[in-house]
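Section 5.1 Outputs to date
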Amino acid sequence: MKKIAAYIENERGNVALLVLGLISVMIILFMLVLNLAGALIVKEQAMSTSQQAALAATASLYEELPGFILSYEKELKEFIEEEEAAKEAEEPGEPEEPEEPKEKEKTIEELIDEETEKLSGEMSDYSLNEIRNEAIDRILSKELDKGLGNNLLKTKLSLEMEYDWIKSMKESARSAIIANGGEVEGAVMTVFEDGQIVVESAHEVEAIGYNGFFAGIKENLFKSSKGPELKFVKKLPEWEGRTYSLE
């Protein structure tokens, strides 16, 4: 009888150990599922953050354009007047008969207003700001093709980008990452990729641990997103693929 009792007691102990083992495995599997779900959530957060940062950088660039356009037109007018004066000085002659007054050319601002009105019907689902940005983009693309003033527009755009706009675009993207709870460590902005601003940033994912499993595991999950296409920057091939740190 003692042997039977000892055997039963031993079996009970084995069953208890088996149950404890199964419970541990189930808990680990549960932790694994929770960690995978958490990683997916962080992945979506990282994607959203990089998207917001790319949009912020694009918006920053568009904010600079109205004032830039006025400055460019003033400089172009001065350039043309100087060229005409130099040409007249080189080719003196009898005064010509006064020509009939030509129709005044429209300013870029007027062309943008016209394009905005035209696009309002085509882009009725968009905000007025988005429609105007699209109009600016289209008109600048056309003006760049003209190459007026020895490609003055292209030259000025590149200079402004190099010495002013990149700085504000980086700051806008960085601020958006921080505001969305992202990590600026390792974050980068690419200007441009097929006419788009691309931002890569991360969110930190921390594993849920159990009994030593997964405990203390932390990792930055990186995702990248693109802003809307900018047609006019495609006319600036020297800017394709430049990458800047956002740290």
